[in-house]
Amino acid sequence: MAITNRIENFHMEVNQAFLDEAEALAPALITTEIFPAGVVEIAPSGQDWTSRTVSQGFDRSRPLGRGDSVCLDFGDHWVGYVSFALTPVGSPPDAPACLRLRLGEIPYELTVGKADYQGEISSSWIQEELIHVDVLPARVRLPRRYAFRYLEITVVDTSPKYQVVVSDVVCAAVTSADRGKLPPLNTGDPELAALDRVSLKTMEDCMQSVFEDGPKRDRRLWLGDLRLQAQTNYVTFQNNDLVKRCLYLFAALTQNEGRVGACLFLEPCPQVDDTALFDYALFFVSTLHDYYAATGDRKTLEELFPTAERQLELALRELDGRGIVTDKDSWWCFLDWGEGLNKQAGAQAILIYALKQGAVMAEWLGVSERAAVLWDAAGRAARAALDCLWDEERGFFVSGAQRQVSWASQVWFALAKVLAPEDNARLLERLLEQKPGIPLVTPYAYHHLVEALVENGLSEQAVSAMKGYWGGMLQEGADTFWELYDPNDPLASPYGSRAVNSFCHAWSSTPAYFIRRYWNP
Amino acid sequence: MAITNRIENFHMEVNQAFLDEAEALAPALITTEIFPAGVVEIAPSGQDWTSRTVSQGFDRSRPLGRGDSVCLDFGDHWVGYVSFALTPVGSPPDAPACLRLRLGEIPYELTVGKADYQGEISSSWIQEELIHVDVLPARVRLPRRYAFRYLEITVVDTSPKYQVVVSDVVCAAVTSADRGKLPPLNTGDPELAALDRVSLKTMEDCMQSVFEDGPKRDRRLWLGDLRLQAQTNYVTFQNNDLVKRCLYLFAALTQNEGRVGACLFLEPCPQVDDTALFDYALFFVSTLHDYYAATGDRKTLEELFPTAERQLELALRELDGRGIVTDKDSWWCFLDWGEGLNKQAGAQAILIYALKQGAVMAEWLGVSERAAVLWDAAGRAARAALDCLWDEERGFFVSGAQRQVSWASQVWFALAKVLAPEDNARLLERLLEQKPGIPLVTPYAYHHLVEALVENGLSEQAVSAMKGYWGGMLQEGADTFWELYDPNDPLASPYGSRAVNSFCHAWSSTPAYFIRRYWNP
Prior knowledge:
2 copies of one chain form a homodimer.
Chain A: E1 13-14, H1 16-24, E2 30-34, E3 38-45, E4 48-56, E5 69-90, E6 97-104, E7 128-133, E8 138-141, E9 146-157, E10 162-175, H2 190-206, E11 221-222, H3 223-234, H4 240-252, E12 253-254, E13 263-265, E14 271-272, H5 278-295, H6 298-316, H7 344-365, H8 368-388, E15 390-391, E16 396-397, H9 407-416, H10 421-434, H11 443-455, H12 459-475, H13 511-518
Antiparallel strand pairs in A: 1-12, 2-10, 3-4, 3-5, 5-8, 5-9, 5-10, 6-7, 6-9, 11-13, 13-14, 15-16
Helix pairs in contact in A: 1-4, 2-12, 2-13, 3-4, 3-5, 3-13, 4-5, 5-6, 5-7, 6-7, 7-8, 7-9, 9-10, 9-11, 11-12
């Protein structure tokens, strides 16, 4: 995720004890050497681009001179550090070798150079390097970390007297996910098994020093992604200390007034971004709730509950006289990337959802008077929603001054369980049938649809929605699940260029969560 | 110099004792921190480009975002390693910073990108880098060595949320020349003083681990350049061990049959190139002769004389039945870059020149029978030249089957002193008056003209030629003397693009030699 939304007079508040706790939990990364599986050509295919295998395996290239190129396929998506041998052929090298390197998670990325890029966010996310090798032969070690399956090496120039051979190409792939911890998958459904496999790869490549949102971009810790990664983690890699580390980081480094930020940077030292999002701050509550439910780690719950409660207090400040979250023109709440999506109703539902989880945590901690306050706030917010946001005639929740009907609003009210249980299911059935208003556009939003369906007894529809949406990415050849997938527009991007979309994205890794939590016999 | 001319079945012969001797003489480099003198704009000026000072001094740039650029002027030509601080301004950096760096010895180079380059030799000589800085703030240290006065830093992208400030820019300039060793210059002529100053800077920047031909390109040890650098060195920086090191390197690493190569590479380990040039091999003789004359280092003369003698033997093999060096179609002898220049007469003269120096060395060593053989060979080669190459009617030496009259042929015969002393002077006067045939095009060839004039008593014409030619470069704003200078064509290049010409070139640094040897009262 990447968008601009800077809070005013931003400053960072630091809880050093929490930060120390988080740093003590920094994981050791597991490194695996990965070799190219073959050589490919990238060619147009319909509206998209695809790779065609030219040869299986890769030992060494033919000699390459000015303008020559080789495109290597590492067989799957990896996150890591690339190195290769560059050996001169011909006379002693009488000029440096100049190489252009492009790395892509999918073939399309290799077709867009930095020079062609027209998108809104930084072109620096395009994985393209220009390097000079002054002394040959050499082992070229690229210092940066890349997320990729394809590596294109183009010789910009050698000299008329020599060429170069590329050999011994290796990617030192890194992750903090340990496959030895994976519980077995027992499904007999090959579609589910395939969805699980690609989910795990997505999770694995996003699990680094923290749960990153995407290892290509933004390579950092976003709360919205963390919540879903943590849920998936509990039923897959079970690196619960990594969740704990991330919770302590968010609690250690807050914005003005103790507000949990939307994301954190890890380098050069941990710091909170100046982006605040209403829903993401509340997901601190939710992630802590889920963490305790999965681990029973009471000490963490005790230490971090005040941070969670603070987010609820700050959110309640945003209620208007009717008890409804105040709508804003800015990018104040995420929900989804849908064009024109109004966030008010979704925000209200998430507030209710988080208040209930806060109340449950208060009960776990035995602070019943706090629990009562939170239950009461949840009840009032729910009643206000029914009074002001529920459109009885249309049978949907509406959002904003224009009384917008969107999928996201319905999904989140179904998750917040504001209606009676059977009415939640009817709401979702009506949604699937009528397909009203602003649709869902990200796997993140589809996750909440599937979760709402499962939680409200519509398992069949849940499986069908999951297979349809994530299965579509599989059919497009995804090795890892994408940040954004619009079945009707392969080139869709919220950034003005698909080249900077992330094609291994944490919030898209949840089929494994659903399959293993609900459909793993 | 850079051209392709590969000897057949090339192999390298190694004299390890000589190599050890050379390596023991590797100089310590002197490092000096150089800071930008100001900010400039590069703009067209007639057929060329020039810099216009925007501000004196440079502390830090204004914040730079996508597409912004700053061009720093380091006030003079330097060879070294650049580093700078890159500090973000705005929100915490949410994307890498991507920078394009261009470095130029003269303004023109900053106007030609790698993508635009159409020359014959490698575009990798264009000093242009694309770098990504993932973690900010950062001290960016460019690992490569550059030769430059101008450094242009362009921000390809940061992100919409932050910009960067460039500050604390420094060049760690390196040289093995010690200005403390410079004898004083006593000339009262400001033109000569200016030529001396720029010559010294050129020498200094070419004096590194060896005498490089040019620190931008080719950054290596060519014999033709070494001979002139050594001559200049004896009257300027007096780093005689550096000359000795280079002589031992050439003698240690020879081509097939003990032939001294035209140039050596130093990295990854010392090795001789596969280029052989008739004249350059003979300049080993000449350089050793000059070294002993300057230093009286008898041990080196004794050890390296056999290598020198071997070059004379190999050259004598090339004589035809008439006793004239066999002409060839290939690039077998350098002399100059003049278009269509035939090398036969120049090669004959250089052979005579070197045979005489060989004979003198044999006398120094007291091996009189060897001296007699060499004097005899020189005499026979000179008589053959007078018989076959001297055109009495035209009053010039002719070269090749087409009996070409060129400046280079006359200059070298004047240096070889084949005619009677007064006839040499007349030959040169005739040359300056009639301006026949193929002209001289490089400072290297102009050096030999000036040397021939001085040696034959035409001092006034020598000074005038030197002031006219090198002074022209001064008028063009040269900080160091150029590899190539054609007063009538600012864009001239032997490589198809002026962007890869060297603008600090060893063979152009000899005004200091002339001034200090002949005109320093």
